[in-house]
Amino acid sequence: MVTTKAYAPASIGNVSLGFDILGAALAPVDGQNLGDWVAVSDAEQFSLTVDGRFADRLPPGTENNIVTKCYDFFQDALATKGVAKLKVSMHLHKALPIGSGLGSSASSIVAAFYALNAHANRPFDKDTLLLMMGELEGQISGSVHYDNVAPSYLGGMTLMTGQDAPVALCLPSFEEWYWVACYSGLSVSTAAARRILPKEFDMQTCLTFGRQIGVFIDALYRGDKKLASSVMTDVIAEQHRKSLLPHFDEARSYAKAQGALAFGISGSGPTVFAVADSLSTAQAVQTWLNEHYIQNEDGFSHICKIDTAGTRVVSE
Ligand SMILES: Nc1ncnc2c1ncn2[C@@H]1O[C@H](COP(=O)(O)OP(=O)(O)O)[C@@H](O)[C@H]1O
Ligand SMILES: N[C@@H](CCOP(=O)(O)O)C(=O)O
């Protein structure tokens, strides 16, 4: 029996300054995995099995799992191309908590499409796959956005173009930066956290948003860490979402007092992230978050670097 297994890393959507258009993939510095994996095996009949720390939080019923929806979507796309359907079963290892702000649904979606495409000898190119991933992410979160699927798939820090090809651009990132990600253990629905946002923003906010993105990209390319971190603030979502995140303001105050370069909500939360330029600062922030931000036994934190590899086929 041939099996293809793909791992897709967790990601930080928005990275504070780039609502829906900027994302970053995460790799814990201790070498642990932080992401879901999906295996595709030859089989006469489709089935989906699940395991992993957060498998019991998935909606009951195979048909309600986003991985099954990816399978259906992929088969339809093969049919449109005139390619025979795949005869496979799938297995999801659900390591990321649902509604965490770590791109949990994106991780499952990306691992599923990547494994299906690899198993089928890669009938779809990168951009076509990314469009499929975005479509499925949109089905689950209320609107199509690529800031989790793109970094999880491509690795690194990615900027969305709004085009069909290329869907996303890979940006440089600072190798020296540590990214502390702390999940509180609560669940925040991305769809609900999107519904509470205003439908329109004033001129000043639009100008700040555009200026920040422009300055950030320029600073990344010139290697100007100070300028890059100075524009990592959120003028779109944070003020509306932080009421969903107990101890958010205290966490930021502590992180900044310790010397963190930036602090914000990861995706729609409740995970928060801090950027530090030394391991000792990252560790101090992590210790505080573990003691004060985590709310229950589901919570956890990791000190990460940017995962530059993105989704990959892994062995059994
Ligand atoms: N494999 C899966 N991984 C994550 N969520 C899934 C999966 N399959 C179905 N779901 C459902 O999709 C929704 C994802 O919620 P969302 O708030 O977008 O999570 P996240 O922000 O962590 O991606 C939840 O209602 C969850 O039950
Ligand atoms: N740009 C999206 C990102 C959502 O990320 P998630 O990890 O919470 O699904 C948003 O901010 O709504």
UniProtKB/TrEMBL annotation:
Looking up PANTHER family in the UniProt record yields: HOMOSERINE KINASE (PTHR20861:SF1), HOMOSERINE/4-DIPHOSPHOCYTIDYL-2-C-METHYL-D-ERYTHRITOL KINASE (PTHR20861)
Superkingdom as given in the UniProt entry: Bacteria
- Is ATP-binding found in the keyword set? yes
| Cited InterPro entries | GHMP_kinase_C_dom (IPR013750), GHMP_kinase_C_sf (IPR036554), GHMP_kinase_N_dom (IPR006204), GHMP_knse_ATP-bd_CS (IPR006203), Homoserine_kinase (IPR000870), Ribosomal_Su5_D2-typ_SF (IPR020568), Ribsml_uS5_D2-typ_fold_subgr (IPR014721)
Q: Which UniProt keywords apply?
A: Amino-acid biosynthesis, ATP-binding, Cytoplasm, Kinase, Nucleotide-binding, Threonine biosynthesis, Transferase
Its source organism is Agaribacter flavus
Q: What is this protein called?
A: Homoserine kinase
Q: Which gene encodes it?
A: thrB
Q: Extract the GO molecular function terms from the UniProt entry.
A: homoserine kinase activity
